[in-house]
Amino acid sequence: MEAIPSPVVAIKINEWYKHIKKFNVKDAERLREEVRKELDLMEEDEQAILYFQLMEFRHQLMHDYLNPKEKKVEKSEYLKSVEGQGKKMTGILEYYYNFFQGMYEYTQGEYLKAIVFYRRAEKRLDQTGDELEKAEFYYKMGEVFYQMKQTHISMYYVGLAYDTYRAYKTHSIYMIREINCLTVVAGNYIDLETREKALPCFFSSLEKAKALGNKNIVFRQLYNIGLCYKGLSETTKSISYFHQAILEGEPIGEKLFQVYYELVRIHLKQKEFIEGQEFYEKAKRQATSYHDDLFLTLLDFMEKLFFKSANLSEVLEALEKLENPRGYPYMEDLALEAAQFYTENGRMDESVKLYEKVMYARKQIQRSDCLYEFR
Asked: Which domain of life is it from (predicted)?
């Protein structure tokens, strides 16, 4: 049988990648199997094999994103096998390698590492002539810089992505990407303490999600609106939207422990301890079932501050578990809450210690400005 030309297989891998980005699982699985079969009949081509291995990795990222509760395959092994072959990748494959590795690091909460790989990918971004591929890259950059509180850099990248997605909004997947961009923009406005600018972005996203009939995004935007009103100290509206989020999220199996956690904080701050305890128990049960160590740490902090004696050493010990790039924003937020708690209760020496922790966390966040790699 005549060997299949490698460019034919590469084109099919391109199609596979398009379906992965659109979360078209059935089509992605079908093309994956077709490519696997054709690789056995393909003419020898190291670059095509590397391209396939990288796409296997990207396919697994899609699968884990859509099925977060399933046991995850050790995805890093995919890229280690590619690296271990010691074969030089072309410009476009070098782009994919670093872009996908950055996505993996992001899912692990390793934002600094993600940025390093994204920066490397950016040097090869011109190798792809696909505007939507560039928009995908820009969105990921905006997303990770938002997580690192690099607000203006995030706004720059997400703006580039948003302009492209708006031009393609006739397709539902790109309207979802448009919603994602608006959500990041709103998050940046919140970090700039201009929540009044964030609210229109969230409400616009909510209406777009309803028009698409996407209940998961409707849930997420209701939660975001609740957070925004909480930050504006409009507690009644905040609680209302959190409860709407619960009503939307329960029937579709959404993770509700984040909503419960915010209701815990609201009720405890208002000294409504019965309600606070109720939502605390709900949050802890669900966070435990999802094995979410971050939120279990946050809940542990709330327990030590509000449900126990608020012993300073125990509170500080709980904060130390947030000693990482992903945890510093939470450390800043919770340390400030603890400082206010101690102040209200006349425990000024302990309050000072917590304000020092606030400043420490802010300094660690600011240090993330030094993210650039010169090679």
From this structure: Bacteria
